[in-house]
Here is the input.
Amino acid sequence: MAAKILDGKSLAAEVRGSLKSAVASLADRGARPGLAAILVGEDPASRIYVRNKARACEEAGVRSEIHELPQGAPERSLLERIAALNADRAVHGILVQLPLPRQIDAQRVLAAVSPAKDVDGFHAQNLGALLQGSPGFVPGTPAGVMRLLDHAGVRVAGARAVILGRSTIVGKPLALLLLQNDATVTICHSRTRELASLAREADILVAATGRPKLVTANMVKPGACVVDIGIHRAPDGRIVGDVDFGPVSEVAGSITPVPGGVGPMTIAMLIANTVRAAELSNAQPAA
Ligand code: NDP
Here is the structure.
């Protein structure tokens, strides 16, 4: 039987719609939420991501600005731009689009973003808060996955969750969120042995490897929920994920499509974080 499709596109539209009253009430007080995205270099995928985020912001009533720096920009220029945005009261959220060119140390850059404006949730302070179970800003992709699972009624407590990928922006924070919701979590990576048999144990299988169609039908337990984080452009121009969607959807109980699954949820959660940052900043007395 074909799997139930977890429709991130429509849920993301719902999430963005639910933010409108908060945005309107902030705007009434002269505090329209604002997101600044910094794009360094010419990476075509990064350009598309930043443009999509800016468009989704505008649709939700959130002001957006894009700051572009050339491919060869020194780290110092980026740090200066971040310092200026940290001080700008009209900017409530700052995102630095990754990956950054080689000459720039991403850790130093992410550490320079004010934790109060770190709506991507990549600053060590926000990641540390997540580890402690008292989150500040949670990264959008893991937060979006949890929202999708909740909306679809996927039982997380007690479930065996297997995550393929251990990045700091997806795999690890998602593992923490699943753990906090009482799943039993296994994180796999490129050195994991017997990946397929571990994957087959999963009630919830998450693929975040950056390897197109890595997850095949024989790696999926019948009835499992399969979450595909990957985004790749196939040689024929189509967008595909880390999961071999057709055959896997014959085995899984539910599955996120690519496109239209986790991607739109990531952006919706980013906007939700920006609105929350604006609310928190508006609740502070002026400096
Ligand atoms: P990274 O490259 O940072 O991490 C990939 C992880 O996958 C690593 O931990 C790596 O292991 C592991 N891995 C690679 N190959 C294998 C393999 N053959 N078997 C098991 N594990 C493997 O990627 P990201 O986490 O940043 O992104 C993952 C994917 O998700 C990409 O396709 C990216 O484009 C997409 N993405 C999508 C988003 C969305 O909104 N939908 C948001 C962010 C990312 P090791 O650590 O050993 O190298």
